[in-house]
Amino acid sequence: MHKIESKNVNFFYGETQALHDISLSMKENTVTALIGPSGCGKSTYLRLLNRMNDLIDNTRMEGSILIDQKDIYQKNTNVDDLRKNVGMVFQKPNPFPKTIYENVAYGLRVNGVEDKNIIEERVITSIEQVALWDEVKDKLKKSAFELSGGQQQRLCIARALAIQPSVLLMDEPTSALDPISTSKVEELVHELKKKYTIVIVTHNMQQAARVSDNTAFFYMGKLIECDKTKTIFTKPAIQQTEDYITGRFG
Amino acid sequence: MKTNFKQLKEKLIESVLMLSGAATSITVVLIVFFLFIEGAGVFNRKPIDDGYLLVVNATNKVKTLQPSQVKDVFDKKITNWNQLGGENRPIVLFRTSDITEYYTEEELGANFEHFPEKINELIQKQPGIIAFFSDKYKSDKFSGKELDIDKVKVWEFLSGEEWFPTAQPIAQMGVKPLIYGTLWVSFGAILLALPIGLAAAIYLSEIAQKRTRSLLKPLIELLAGIPSVVYGFFGLVVIVPLIQEMFHLPVGETGLAGSVVLAIMALPTIITISEDAMRNTPRAMKEASLALGASKWQTIYKVVMPYSASGITAGAILGIGRAIGETMAVLMVTGNAAVIPNTLLAPVRTIPATIAAELGEAPNGGLHYEALFALGCILFLITFGINMLVELVTNRKAHKKQ
Amino acid sequence: MKSQNKLARKKRISQNIAFGIFTAISYAIVALLFVILAFIVVKGIGVISWEFITAMPSNGMTEGGIYPAIIGTLCLVLASMIFAFPVGVFAAIYMNEYVKDGWIKKIIKQMTNNLAGVPSIVFGLFGMSLFVNKLGFGDSILAGGLTLGLLVLPVVIRTTEESLKAVDSTFRHASLGLGASKWQTTSKVVLPIAFPNIITGLILSIGRVSGETAPILFTVAAYFLPKLPSSIFDQAMALPYHLYVIATSGTNIEKSRAMAYGTALILIIIVLISNLLANALRKYYGKKVKMN
Q1: Distance from C266 to chain B by nearest Cα, in Å?
Q2: Chain B residues touching C15 at Cβ < 8 A
Q3: For A54, A206, A226, B259, which has the most beta carbons within 10 A of its beta carbon?
């Protein structure tokens, strides 16, 4: 049973086709890494999974994407609910100009949670989940901008977790972070795998090898190969994949 | 030699450019200088027309009077000298035109040649008299006592409740009704324009398609290009009658008419500045909100508006500034009654409208002229303060972003 | 699940209501613009004729034309621009090309902002005090033109500065790298590229100047003149002031109403033309620059 299942997905920015016939599936509680050179369409694909591309004018998508067997591109899909179920962490940490506490509580509030006790409990568990609690417990009322970049990114992950999604999309979540923060986030991904289905876009080969169960290689808007991470990194079926992984281009 | 010439030329050009660069600064300094020189003159004067006298009986103990006391005396609010520190004696008012009550035309002479001595005689006879007349009627054998009038005081100027600078015997120069009028009309305008402008700004920056936006924006900016006198005219022939009918008023020229016209005029400022501020909200911030399942509208009022709050504030303040300084449109539709307003449905008068309406009739360098310049100073200070406030608000935002 | 649906509905409904209101308001503002324009066009179009723009007012300004007011406004635009355009452009060049970031730039910028914020009636007071009285120009085109010139100076400076900023710095570096001096670079490379945008600013300033009333009230404007001004030391009539006069205090307000509509229409036409022209220029050259 697949958690996420995309079939023959094409995607266009105006006249330009950015994705060609992508069929890709992910199982529950796995980590899938999307790799490939810049502009290969991996981020575009990721942003299809929570319909973030809807925000860009003049775009068009064909094919179907199913999450929990439900086509998320049906007319009657409630996009807000979809995004609540499919959390997202962005390339650069992007906390709101609010307090640390309010950042995490935001998703709950916009989704109609009013009970203060529930909010507080969820805020605390989410921050604990990302192993940030000890660092911020004394300054929950301070601005989120006072945190370091790595802390901010973990806060953004906590923010996404607070609304209890089942899928977590991560768009190069460590590209703006230092090595120590990066390894903290990677550990976190390992931990979160137990509860969530994770899709992570990364530029960093080693990171893909370290954190993911499966790896999908994108090139020029096409899905070249997808397999167990081990297989991709040891004996890829396709020459292009090997060239990329061994650093011959990209 | 040639390079020398080239260098000289460069230097020369640079100094011309520098001088031009200094032009705005010089102008601001000159404006301040001339405005305040002329305006300060009013506080060095007595609020009584040049060449006129206030005279009492020589035995009267009162020597000086405050301008407000003189006014109360002539308004018959003060009727006895003991209220002014004199003896218990009723006050007898005398203006030049009252002379016929005391003397016949024969006594005054065919060409009023006996006028001066008769006035003098009257002042001698009436111990309680206070007489106001031109000094050309001052007799050679004048035996009355000229009253000393205090100069106009800054505080009285600011807090006086009556603006009647051509009143006799004492010019009433209280700017309070004008300041109130200005603020009422301006705040009324912002109250109308801010929600409307904000709604349009939200639409343009967050909701409208790119093409719609590029169509509507220039149209809204066109509103800013229409001359204020045309707005005034439109207000006069359309809005004024409309208001008169809607509220069943005797006249439609009211503070409300001014507010409505100013609101229309302030819209482009508010819309443009708030829209810019909203569009500056980082995309990442909006995406973060949407990715958490917030609706577009929730994202707008929970993320975009708080983020652009300082820009929106700046737009609103700037809008108020424009409204406060606006002259022609207001002059044409507010009815210009110099009374402290207690409703927007009555005629009011603003500072700029007062200057525009009265300066043409005020003799150059006279008391009235200087009083109008003093009004200009007040206006300048208010708008200057508003500019500084905007600067402060936007700078703080820049600071926060870092 | 049920409460989930309810929440989704609530969110959708409140969003629809809010967006509906915003959209309606935005279009209402545009509609208002059209109402104002249409009103004046409809009422004024019948008045406009060859006679209206070429004849002197007659019969207490209830008949005839507005020729002297048009000529007066033309003179004022010319006088103010002869002063404000070069000074404004030079100032912008100084700001953008010469002076380095620092307190001088900060002060000039602040003062320009302050000048832009001074109410137009204060310019009127200032012009009267300095040009009319102190310098002894009297009520004249010179005094009025200078006052208006100072008023639009910040506009000219700002638009020019923006045009200069839009010029890619690689052009400057290329020119300087070939041994050209700063002024040579500015005059031969930067200004020609920025020129169309600077002209756009000039056109917008002209639109602004021709509609200003308060600054000319006490510096130049005449209620009625039987003949045209013959030198810059003469008084002149002007369109905006003429409209003010015949709308509020003419000899016979009712009878001169038609003339007022006509005058307002002429003013609107000037503004429309200058805006359209500026927009067209901006678009035309915007494309051209991009193509390069």
Answers
A1: 10
A2: 295-298
A3: B259
Considering only residues 315 to 374 of chain B, which have any Cβ-Cβ distance to chain C shorter than 8 Å? Answer: 321, 324-328, 332, 352, 355-356, 359-360, 364, 372-373
pLDDT over 50 at B402, yes or no: no
Q: Is residue B73 part of a domain?
A: yes
Pair B258, B332 in one domain: yes
% of chain B at pLDDT higher than 70 = 98
Would you say residue A97 has pLDDT above 80?
A: yes
Q: Cα(C97)–Cα(C165) distance, rounded to whole angstroms? A: 9
Tokens representing A150? 């790595």
A62 CB within 8 Å of a chain C CB = no
Whether residues B145 and B185 share a domain: the answer is no
Q: Residue type for B36, please?
A: F
Return the minimum-mean-pLDDT range out of A13-27, B27-41, B137-151, C160-174.
B137-151
Distance from the C281 Cα atom to the nearest Cα atom in chain B, whole angstroms = 14
Does any domain span residue B305?
yes
Distance in angstroms (rounded) separating the CA atoms of residues C82 and C87: 9
CA distance C51 to chain B (A): 22
Tell me which of A78, A85, A114, A164 to substitute to probe the interface with C (most C C-beta atoms closer than 10 Å).
A78
pTM: 0.87
The answer to whether residues C69 and C263 touch, using CB atoms and an 8 Å cutoff, is yes
CATH number of residue B77's parent domain: 3.40.190.10
pLDDT at residue C207 tops 80: yes
- Please compute Rg for chain B using Cα positions: 30
**Pairwise CB contact (< 8 Å): C4 & A80:** no
B332 and B237 together in one domain: yes
Dist. CA A34–CA A24, nearest whole Å: 11
| Structural domain includes residue B158 | no
Residues C188 and C71 in one domain: yes
Distance from CA of B283 to the nearest CA of A (A): 10
What digits encode the pLDDT tens for the residues C104-161? Answer: 999 999 999 999 999 999 999 999 999 999 999 999 999 999 999 999 999 999 999 9
- Residues of chain C contacting A81 with CB distance shorter than 8 Å: 4, 8
Euclidean distance between CA atoms A74 and A84, whole angstroms = 17
Task: For residue B380, give the nearest of C110, C122, C264 by CB distance.
Answer: C122
What do you get for the CA distance between the two ends of chain A, in Å? 34
- The number of domains in chain B is 2
CB of A229 closer than 8 Å to CB of A33: yes
| Dihedral Cα C44, C48, C54, C57, nearest 10 deg | -50
- Are residues C197 and C132 part of one domain? yes
Q: What 3-state DSSP class applies to A111? A: coil
Are both B281 and B365 inside the same structural domain? yes
Residues C157, C23, single domain; the answer is no
What CATH number is associated with residue C180?
A: 1.10.3720.10
What's the rounded Cα separation, in Å, for the pair B63 and C274?
65
Claim to verify: residue B321 and residue B225 sit in the same structural domain: yes
pLDDT at A199: 96
Q: Which of B6, B27, B298 sits opposite C115 (nearest CB)?
A: B27
Give chain C's domain count: 2
Domain that includes residue B237, residue range: 176-401
Interface of C with A (CB under 8 A): 3-4, 7-8, 10-12
Whether residues A81 and C10 touch (CB distance < 8 A) is answered with no
Q: Is B224 on the interface with C (CB under 8 A)?
A: no
Range of the domain at C191: 50-291
pLDDT for the residue numbered C286: 67
- Condensed to tens digits (0 to 9), the pLDDT of residues A135-183 reads 999 999 999 999 999 999 999 999 999 999 999 999 999 988 889 889 9
* Six token digits for residue C99: 């002076």
Cα C214 from Cα B352, distance rounded (Å): 9
Quick one: average pLDDT of C238-265? 86
Mean pLDDT, chain B, whole residue set: 88
